[in-house]
Amino acid sequence: MPLNLEDKRAIVASVNAVASEALSAVVADYRGLSVAQMTELRKKARETGVYLKVVRNTLAKRAVEGTEYECLNDSLVGPTVLAFSQEDPGAAARLIKDFAKDHDKLEVKALAVGGVAYGAQDIDVLAKLPTRDEALAQLLSVMQAPVAKFVRTLNEVPGKFVRTMAAVKDKKQQEAA
């Protein structure tokens, strides 16, 4: 069913609004996936906070104009699904990579972060980025380590004193006996 001009403008505006606030994007070829598989992919995308949209390439090119994802224009060829990470940079890459493990028909074309386009082979780098919660946990553990070591060092002073006093007591008892 052909789209009228207003529908096209709405799609372009919608994708552009998401692209301007997204942290990263993945472009994939979904050719060969069934409707049920695409529905499953969309469901997983909603659960992980990823905006997933199948858009005509001409509309997608217009939608990413003026955003940092304009660098993806060369990869917008053939059947294309756009995935934008909205909460953490690696969400879309993890979603597409995990889904492609079980469905070999889904092929990554390109991805972009910070206005730089990367090839499909770089999806592992982006997918392995920690989530926000994981990054905060790592930061807290790094911040906690010096404090914990300082407390152990402070605790060692009275401990060493007690051990020295015990050794003196034992020595005096041995001399008295």
UniProtKB/TrEMBL annotation:
Alphabetically ordered keywords of this record: Ribonucleoprotein, Ribosomal protein, RNA-binding, rRNA-binding
InterPro entries registered for this protein in UniProt: Ribosomal_uL10, Ribosomal_uL10-like_sf, Ribosomal_uL10_bac, Ribosomal_uL10_bac_type, Ribosomal_uL10_CS_bac
UniProt cross-references to CDD domains, sorted A to Z: Ribosomal_L10 (cd05797)
Pfam families, sorted: Ribosomal_L10 (PF00466)
Family: Belongs to the universal ribosomal protein uL10 family.
PANTHER family: 39S RIBOSOMAL PROTEIN L10, MITOCHONDRIAL
Name this polypeptide is given: Large ribosomal subunit protein uL10
Organism: Alloalcanivorax xenomutans
Gene coding for it: rplJ
